[in-house]
From TrEMBL:
Superkingdom per UniProt: Bacteria
Protein name, UniProt field: Fumarylacetoacetate hydrolase family protein
Boundaries of every Rv2993c-like N-terminal domain copy: 1-58
GO MF, one annotated term: hydrolase activity
Ranges where the Fumarylacetoacetase-like C-terminal domain occurs: 63-267
InterPro entries hit by this protein: Fumarylacetoacetase-like_C, Fumarylacetoacetase_C_sf, Rv2993c-like_N
Keywords: Hydrolase, Metal-binding
Amino acid sequence: MRIARFAHAGGMSFGVVEGEPEAGAEGLTVAQIEGHPFGEIRFTGERWALADVRLLSPILPSKVVAIGRNYAEHAAEMGSEVPAEPLMFLKPSTSVIGPDDVVRLPPQSKQVEHEAELAVVIGPPGARRADKAAAAKAIFGYTCANDVTARDLQRSDVQFTRAKGFDSFCPLGPWIVTGIDAADLEVRCEVLPANAPAGTEAEVRQLGSTRDMIFDPVTLVSYVSHVMTLLPGDVLLTGTPAGVGPMVEGDTVSVRIAQVGTLTNRVLALE
C-alpha cells in the first residue's frame, strides 16, 4: 500500500495512492482516508487524480534519526573506517520537506551534496528498547530520502548538526510504502544539471542496493531504540551508498528506490 499526505482544495489529508507508478503519474489517483493512517484504514469516498493534488512530505516526524557510513564503499570514499556500531546523528524536524519542494543552498556552505537513502517510518506503538522482533513490528513502511549535507561544514565542524540540519535538508517522499521486503532494493540518485538542454538525460550519481548495508533496517531500529524512544511517525535514515556528490543551483535531484518510488527536488539558492 502506498500512503501519501497531500494538499487539496479542501485542506490536507492522508490517502492511498492507487494505480501503477510505472505507467506514469497520469494514471494514478489518491483515495482519501479518515484521519491518520496508523489506525484502521477507512476511506471517505473522496478521490482525486494525483495531478490535481500536491504531495507533501508523507509524514511529519518528531525527529529524524540518521545513520552514517552504513555502506562500506561510502565509508571508503569518505576516507573513513566502517563503524563497529551504527553511527547515529539527528536531523531536526524543520529540515523535512516533501516531493517537488525546493532544497535551499545556505550561504554558509560552498559544498552541498546529495545522499540518496532508504528511510524507515516508525508506526505504533513505536519502539523503546526493542529486540529485533519488536523492531520489525515497529516498522510501518518505507519512503525515499535525501540526506542533504553541507560537506565542507561537516569537515570543519567535525560533528554533524550544522552540516545536516539546515532547513530543507531532509526531503522525504513521495509516499510511504507498506508491506515490502527491504532486504534488496536498488537505491539510486540522478542529477539533471542546471540549464540542461531539452532531452538531456539525468546523470546517475549513486547506484547501490540495500543488500550492501552493514546494519539492516531492523537492526538499526532496535539499536536506536536502546538509546532513545522512537515514536510513531519518526523517521530513520539508513545510510547512503557510494557516489555522493555536489548539488548546485538549478539542479534537479531525484532519489529512486525500487518498489518505493521517486523523490524529486530542485536546488536553489537561499532567498
